[in-house]
Amino acid sequence: MTKPVLSVRNLSTSFLVDGQWKSVVRNMSFDVAPGETVAIVGESGSGKSVTSLSLMRLLAPATSRIEGEVMLNGRNLLALSEKEMRAVRGNEVSMIFQEPMTSLNPIFTIGRQISEVLIRHKAMSKTEARAETIRLLEKVRIPNAAGRFDEYPHQFSGGMRQRVMIAMALASRPKLLIADEPTTALDVTIQGQILDLIKVLQEEEGMSVLFITHDMGVVAEIADRTIVMFRGDEVETGPTEEIFHRGKHPYTRALLSAVPKLGSMQGHDWPTRFPVLDAETGKPAEPVEVADTVVLSKRPVLEVKNLVTRFAIRSGLWSRQTGAVHAVENVSFDLFQGETLSLVGESGCGKSTTGRSIMRLVEPTGGEVALDGYDVMRLDTMGLRQMRKSVQMIFQDPFSSLNPRMTVGTAISEPFIKHRLGTAKEAKEKTADLLEKVGLSADMASRYPHEFSGGQRQRIAIARALALDPKVIVADESVSALDVSIKAQVCNLLLDLQQSLNLAFLFISHDMAVVERVSHRVAVMYLGEIVEIGPRAAVFDNPQHPYTKKLMSAVPVPDPSRRGIRRGISNDELKSPVRAMGYEPPKREYREVSAGHMVQVG
Question: Could you tell me the residue ranges of all domains in the chain?
């Protein structure tokens, strides 16, 4: 039998909290064989990241206690001195983190940062280290690697920075790579590229991978074996196919049931609620039903025509304008009462700027926006204030949009009081009603944002958005930062609220599987333009534009039988929307594929 590269026995980790040791990981035991990929999966707070940091001994010794045995090639890492451990990190074991910008030093070039690993661990000269660094950058598919050696982290996109981190992790040819949520913050096509890259490099180097994630689609595509963690305990482990098809623990079944699967909406004409299972029992936590058919009004509640938003680029001594970011270019669509129109695309495609331009949180350069009878472009400050009673926004990170010094009750009632819609007593009653509506209890009004989980904070943000009885809600990546089961619950809440209040949603997201489930219509954006728009079924069942097809092919599918598949995704980055002064985009033509399904030609 092959000897494992990593053998973990009874790993337990505790943190010192208020003078008491609090256990967060209990009795973890597993092996990672040579060339094998093992995934540790679970939601926030399950203990999976603490497990990886414990293996690498990266927790503060004064406030943490790690017990058990971590055997790497016959040595117990927990028994090594700190000096010996430093020789192990980045040499025998390397780690990639979720956010590369926090792991890369902004004041050093990426070439210097990778070379440093080689000089330290492989005793190379500067010339040898430079040549090897360029080879590594080429290996992780960074175009013009030699030319980018002397560039800084801020000059790379998120996906390219993650490739730099992988190059650095591979520099000393480690036996084990620990990847902690390495694709969570990336767009779907970049995520696809990184997953393919890890698979290819693993085959070439014969490296073992410990992959930590909450994304079951990613687990299915990359892992040979899977460990499921729940509240600090290892609740199930086994071959990935076994876990996916015959998972026994209620939490495993709950996790899998909440995963949105691309293509699961075939045969459904209208948005459908996610099935949500109880993590303790594995039984349905709430009924699963198809949202009722909406009756669309004849007149749209929101009309956008030829919307243009550009940001000036200034340079030189006198800060003269030398170009412009064409963030939104000639975007037109209607949104009807009770309807969800989703704007999808990768970071930088202009979808969030479109949402902010409609509300005039950023000033559009041109075009027309009519919202609930208001000509948005002509409104003064008082007019904008009135208009914003009709349209509200839910942001991606509820913690940064809630005042930490204000109770959630005050945060929810503040818009109601500021707009003088009633007395303080009526505001309190309205707040209690809204908290109940979003699945929280009225007595939570006296608590502060830090006392809530991420999913609960997002519910509070939704309650605040509803305080003024808006007709339109712009949901900007409002579920992308949430764990899979919480994401399902919040999406279900939005669908329920739409039914009961006849809300119109402009749903901005890069998550194609979620978009497929919640949308009536879908608009795909690329470089500031809508390249395809139509009914959800038409766009997903019959995508026409190459970019729409590219987005869909990159979505991880929670099916372990696809593990050997390579998507063959292009390594190109999203092109830049920066244009020279005086540039005018060509006039676009659209072809009607079927009723209401339009695609950009050329």
Answer: 103-171
